[in-house]
C-alpha cells in the first residue's frame, strides 16, 4: 500500500499497486494540464484507490475524447489522477506519490504528440500511441 497527496495535502489517498505499470505520457492533454513536456503516470485499477481525506475537494474535468475525468485538487490545483470509469482504471500522477522503494518508467507513450522542444534522451521503448494491453503486459514482464 502506498500513500500520496496533493500539494496542499487536503486530498490524501492510498493506492494498492506494485508500482510497475509506470509510463511517461507525452499526449497533448497531459502536457497542457501539467504544463510540462510529459507526465509520469501509474496505471492501476480504480478499485485499488482509496481517497482517505478531502474527497469533496476533488474537481473533475471530463475529456470527451478519452471518456475520462482528469481529477485535481480544487484548492491547490494539483493533478492527482485520470479516471476512466468504463475501463475501471486510473492513471495516477506519480509525482503525487510518497515513494519509498524504487520506481521507474518502462516506456514513453503517445510520442506522436510529443512537444517538439523536448527530446527523449533515454533508451526506453517508445510508442506512438497507447500500447495494446498485450504489448503492455510484455513490457511489464521484461
Ligand atoms: Zn490540494
Ligand atoms: Zn497523457
In short:
By secondary structure, this protein is mostly beta strands.
Low-confidence stretches: none
* Cα gyration radius (Å): 15 Å
Structural class: mainly beta
User: Which range best describes the helical content: under 10%, 10-25%, 25-40%, 40-55%, 55-70% or over 70%?
Assistant: 10-25%
Bound molecules: zinc ion
CATH topology description = Metal Binding Protein, Guanine Nucleotide Exchange Factor, Chain A
Gap between N and C termini? 23 Å
The neighbouring-strand order within the major sheet is 6-7-8-9-4-3-11
Shape: globular
CATH class: Mainly Beta
Secondary structure tally, helices: 2
Number of domains as seen in the coordinates: 1
Strand content: 35-45%
Tell me the series of helices and strands, N- to C-terminal.
EEEHEEEEEEEEH
Number of strands: 11
Mean pLDDT across every amino acid position: 95
What does the largest sheet look like? Answer: 7 strands, mixed
Q: Using the 3D structure, state the CATH architecture.
A: Beta Complex
Keywords:
142 residues; Metal Binding Protein, Guanine Nucleotide Exchange Factor, Chain A; four-stranded antiparallel sheet; 2 helices; globular; binds zinc ion
What does this structure look like?
The strands form two sheets. The chain has a seven-stranded mixed beta sheet. It is about 10% helix and about 35% strand. The protein has two helices and eleven strands; from the N terminus they run βββαββββββββα. The chain has a single domain, classed as Metal Binding Protein, Guanine Nucleotide Exchange Factor, Chain A. The longest helix is centred in the last third of the chain and has 9 residues. A hairpin with a 4-residue loop joins strand 6 and strand 7. The mean pLDDT is about 95. By secondary structure, it is mainly beta. The structure holds zinc ion (2 copies). The site of one zinc ion has 9 residues, from loops.
